[in-house]
């Protein structure tokens, strides 16, 4: 039989569920930001490499 904690209210249980959904949306924004920074890095790398090749 599971132990029941009398100090945990129903609203605290609901808040935990709400916090989980908030974390998921912030991770989605983080993924988009990481891809954006990665795309900028790749763009600059290719640009500088093309400049290097054109001056050879």
Describe this structure in words.
The chain has 56 residues and is an all-alpha fold. It has a domain at 26-55. 80% of the residues lie in helices and 0% in strands.
Reconstruct the topology from this structure.
Layout: H1 10-54
Q: Which stretches of 5+ consecutive residues score pLDDT under 50?
A: none
Task: Tell me about the largest β-sheet.
Answer: none
Gross morphology is: rod-shaped
Radius of gyration: 24 Å
The helix/strand order is H
Distance between the termini: 76 Å
Structural class comes to mainly alpha
Strand content: under 5%
Helix content: over 70%
Mean pLDDT: 81
Number of strands: 0
- Tally of individual helices: 1
Quick overview:
This is Cytochrome c oxidase subunit 2A. The protein is mostly helical.
Features:
56 residues; mainly alpha; 1 helix; 80% helix; 0% strand; transmembrane helix; transmembrane; Cytochrome c oxidase subunit 2A; membrane
